[in-house]
Amino acid sequence: MDTLAAYKEHLRDIGKLGSALSLLHWDQRTQLPNGGQETRAEVVGKLTKMVFELSIADELGRYLEELEKREGLSEEERASMRVVGKAYRRNKAIPPDFYERFAIAASKAETTWEKAKERSDFLLFRPHLEEMVEYARQFAEYYGYEESPYDALIEEYEPGMTSRELRAVIEPLRQELVPFIKRLQEEGTPPETDFLRGTFSKEEQRSLSLQALRAIGYDFDAGRLDLAVHPFTISIGPGDVRVTTRFLVDDPLSGLFSSLHEGGHALYDQGIAPKLRWTGLDEGASYGIHESQSRMWENLVGRSLPFWDFFQPIFVETFPAFSGVPAETLYRAANVVNPSLIRVEADEVTYNLHIMLRFELEEGLITGKIAAGDLPDLWRDAMDRYLGVVPEKDADGVLQDVHWSSGLFGYFPSYMLGNLYSSQIFACAQKEIPDLDAHSTRGDFAPLLTWLRERVHRFGMIYEPKDLVKRITGENPDSSYFVRYIEEKYSQIYKL
Amino acid sequence: MDTLAAYKEHLRDIGKLGSALSLLHWDQRTQLPNGGQETRAEVVGKLTKMVFELSIADELGRYLEELEKREGLSEEERASMRVVGKAYRRNKAIPPDFYERFAIAASKAETTWEKAKERSDFLLFRPHLEEMVEYARQFAEYYGYEESPYDALIEEYEPGMTSRELRAVIEPLRQELVPFIKRLQEEGTPPETDFLRGTFSKEEQRSLSLQALRAIGYDFDAGRLDLAVHPFTISIGPGDVRVTTRFLVDDPLSGLFSSLHEGGHALYDQGIAPKLRWTGLDEGASYGIHESQSRMWENLVGRSLPFWDFFQPIFVETFPAFSGVPAETLYRAANVVNPSLIRVEADEVTYNLHIMLRFELEEGLITGKIAAGDLPDLWRDAMDRYLGVVPEKDADGVLQDVHWSSGLFGYFPSYMLGNLYSSQIFACAQKEIPDLDAHSTRGDFAPLLTWLRERVHRFGMIYEPKDLVKRITGENPDSSYFVRYIEEKYSQIYKL
Predict the structure, then answer these.
(1) Are A77 and A40 within 8 A, CB to CB?
(2) Residue range(s) defining the domain that contains residue A105
(3) How many domains is chain B partitioned into structurally?
(4) C-alpha torsion sign, points A148, A152, A157, A160
(5) B378 — contact with chain A (CB < 8 Å)?
(6) Per-chain mean pLDDT for chain A
(7) Which of B8, B28, B42, B244 to mutate to test the interface with A (most CBs of A within 10 A)?
């Protein structure tokens, strides 16, 4: 077989096992009866190992080496080799027994973290956290880096991003956001929300989510909506991108926005060109770019006035208790700003500050400037400075997120980058699509989705995030779009 | 690694991929959005090929060869080698390119069969049927046999069974059943069924099935109930045995019995000893033994008067329209005998005659005594002699079943054997469990389930079907139990 054909066949094999693995994961979190957990873990372990072995197979190394010298490859073939080659080199750099020790330690750390969070006992978690930091530093050494070991880690989630660049983004952002939030709190008039109190059946909330997902263009012939404790979106293949959500009986909006968020992820995956299937390019350009799509549909669309002009009658039909409540009142209620302790409950104004705090702490851990034992105090101090709230217990502070216990360092910034990218991309869409708001008011989101498909989705991983943003918007990534969006929107809502 | 350990590890690898495949199949038939079908077929194809390659791997051949000489293996280890070794030799006997040609031909034959059935056009299907027969005959030659090529095929579904033995069972059975059905028709008083007319919501039927499954001891912590067009049961692993069913809005009983049938399969799989997982022995002893468990819970339990004594109040609570209808009336209505054209709609009295007809025809096809072109006439003739009804079109005759188009010859007898085994095993249970009927009347099926677990389920494939029946009942397989059960039950219901 020709080397290029053999290379592609190898990726197809990885892709097929990957599709089976995705289904195993989806099922585990939505359908699996409790009695099947133990066997499922072993099956997932086996397939994961097989995929990993294929990703570092010697023959793959030979294909890459040979093809890198070859002329006349297409842009997609070159991009595939960029992505697959990088994963090959990074995975190959990790000694298998080191990786196995890490996996065992991470599993123990996660279990202990759960207990520690339950009891709000940081000291219980601390030795595991120290161990995870040590592993992360060692991973960084194996991967290699130019300036900071943290860069080697963030590369996994946001290719091409560095801690220097992140700091350059964060500093001005913080200088704008912290005082703005203070002004909102001190001078603003918070929206009315009391009218939202009540009990809302999950069946009716589900119907609402289905209608919202259909409206934004999620294709139910190529996906489905199920329940999960921690909502997620998963691509099992082209034509099979599944979303999950969860509903709170005392909150009619939370589940809806969770569905729109996951729907945004899903529109991205449903829009990746089918020809990229199993080429190594059939995923989002980065975690940050992926998050930009979920945040766009959740916040820039779902929490906008045009959306509520369209959605108010559907909302009222589902929950007649709200008849007579104007669209604008619902819109305002969906945009309450409330500096709080917990990241996953944060509104779009305060969210990034939760991330900045985590970035500073985890970067310090990885570079060695911060000791794990100092985290609880540093956490409280930063929360006070950024958001003016301080956790009374570590369960609501440093112990709230699972990431570090799983060894995920460098992941958090993706959430922030998603927010920043989303407003920059959306500003571009507003400029280029005539009467975008008028379309949304009519419930016609096709112009936006078509534009996103054309400009963002179809490319998958062909371009690195920075290049993609430049291709889409003609500009480098720029956080001022986010600041402008937030200040304009919330000055109006809070009547500053 | 020690050869025995290596052998077991090899089987565990097959088992893990098999578990993933089972989930892929379950999902395909219950959850998969339409857009995911194409990719799913490729993923299933890949994993199926991997499992097949492992099942004929040279190292497996070496392990088997070495272990067959070894002393001191446990009974289970020997049984594992019996089952795995047979599959190894049979699979190895088929040249890969022959198998590939067969798979392609079968796929085409199935597609054409669907069309032919739709149009009731046997001539359209005939060349494909001829081709499938040719393949089956060739498979038989590759597998090898002593007396009849048909024996080589039935071995796949009912190890140790031969066409000679089947004929010896069928002949007396037919001599009893055909005149008995005639008597029922001519002299019997059919049960009242008009009262069952109505519309019954699928949601309520589902609730009824859930209650019935819970009552018979199906463990929902180790399984789940979903909808499927063609109901099936699938074991994804110990602790994860899933059933499916379907509901007809104009029939409150059909879906319930479908659930009990699948529940019977599932109780078997849930009862296989967990230690047999991934040893090659973690399935039912044969298709016939498996069917004995589904038919037992569907018919000998579910269509019995004690069951309806227990279930009548639940049924009435779900469907208040039936309040006042006594248990016995429901019991009788669930046991209408109606010689009809379609096997899958047949009652338990006439069912076996549908199978005898198919056995005679397919055996004739494989031995060459019958030409495919003669099937429609032979079918009509046999239907007339056995059941007194004749299909007007081949869609309701020779074209009704998918099996032959998929190349499945030798499969049908399992359905009949299931019926025969079920009454023989149940008769033994009645003898050994004190007051079995009284327990059932109280909705207490634990004594029966415990007995079945102990005597049937836990062994998996350790014993071949004939040995297992002998172990359970102390007797060789014997069809007279079925005849006695049918004649006693239906003489009473039809007031002969």
Answers:
(1) no
(2) 96-200+260-496
(3) 2
(4) positive
(5) no
(6) 97
(7) B42
Strand partners, A227: A245
In-domain check, residue A459: yes
Which of A30, A31, A278 best tests the B interface by mutation, with the highest count of B CBs <10 A?
Answer: A31
Together in a domain, A174 and A75: no
pLDDT (tens digit, 9 = 90+) per residue, B1-46? 899 999 999 999 999 999 999 999 999 999 999 999 999 999 999 9
What is the C-alpha to C-alpha distance for residues A208 and A183, in angstroms, rounded to an integer? 35
Name which of B244, B239, B249 is nearest B271 in CA terms: B239
CA–CA separation, B338 vs B330, rounded Å?
A: 17
Whether B232 and B244 map to the same domain: the answer is yes
Share of chain B above pLDDT 70, in %: 100
Measured between CB atoms, which of A32, A47, A222 is closest to B20? Answer: A47
Tokens of B16: 């893990």
Chains A, B: CB pairs < 8 Å: 107
- Cβ within 8 Å, pair A221-B34: yes
Do A112 and A70 sit in the same domain of this protein?
no
pLDDT, one tens digit per residue, over B415-431 is 999 999 999 999 999 99
DSSP string, B382-421: HHHHHHS---SSGGGTTTS-SGGGGT--S-THHHHHHHHH
> Which among A20, A31, A223 has the least Cβ separation from residue B47?
A20
Candidates B155, B156, B158, B262; catalytic one: B262
- Reported as a single tens digit per residue, the pLDDT across B36-70 is 999 999 999 999 999 999 999 999 999 999 999 99
CB proximity A221 to B under 8 Å: yes
- Which own/partner contact pairs does B62-68 have at CB distance under 8 Å and 24+ positions apart? B62/B3, B63/B3, B63/B6, B63/B7, B63/B10, B64/B7, B64/B88, B66/B3, B67/B3, B67/B4, B67/B7
Mean pLDDT value of segment A333-342: 97
A262, A283, A362, A363: the catalytic one is A262
Q: Between chains, do A33 and B237 touch, taking CB under 8 Å as contact?
A: no
Quote the distance between the C-alpha of residue B249 and its chain's center: 25
Cβ contact B33–A238 (<8 Å)? no
Q: Where among A93, A118, A135 does a domain terminate? A: A93
Nearest to B33 among A37, A47, A223 (CB): A223
Which ipTM did the prediction report?
Answer: 0.94
A240 touches chain B (CB under 8 A): yes
Tens-place pLDDT, residues A442-465: 999 999 999 999 999 999 999 999
> Taking all residues of chain B, what is their mean pLDDT, rounded to a whole number?
97
Global pTM reads 0.95
For residues A186 and A316, state if they share a domain. yes
Residue A245 lies in a domain: no
User: Is there a catalytic annotation at residue A114?
Assistant: no
Kindly tell me if the per-residue pLDDT of A194 is higher than 90.
Answer: yes
Chain segment B73-123, per-residue pLDDT in tens: 999 999 999 999 999 999 999 998 999 899 999 999 999 999 999 999 999
Q: Considering A44, A64, A93, which residue would you say is the last residue of a domain? A: A93
Domain-embedded: residue A208: no
CATH number at residue A149: 1.10.1370.30
Instruction: Report the pLDDT value the prediction gives residue A1, as an integer from 0 to 100.
Output: 82
Predicted local distance difference test score (pLDDT) of residue A49: 93
Query: What CATH number should be reported for the domain holding residue A40?
Result: 1.20.58
| Whole-number pLDDT of residue B1 | 82
Report chain B residues whose CB lies below 8 A from the CB of A223.
33, 35
What the block records as the tokens of B414 is 């399992």
Same domain, B24 and B122: no
Nearest to B224 among A19, A33, A236 (CB): A33
Spell out the alpha helix ranges (H) of A221-304. 254-271, 287-295
If asked whether residues A379 and A467 sit together in one domain, one would say: yes
Q: Is A33 on the interface with B (CB under 8 A)?
A: yes
| Residues A274 and A386 reside in one and the same domain | yes
Which residues, listed in sequence order, are joined to residue A233 by a DSSP beta bridge? Answer: A243
Q: How do residues A459-487 score in pLDDT, each as one tens digit? A: 999 999 999 999 999 999 999 999 999 99
Based on the fold, state whether residues B356 and B401 are members of the same structural domain.
Answer: yes
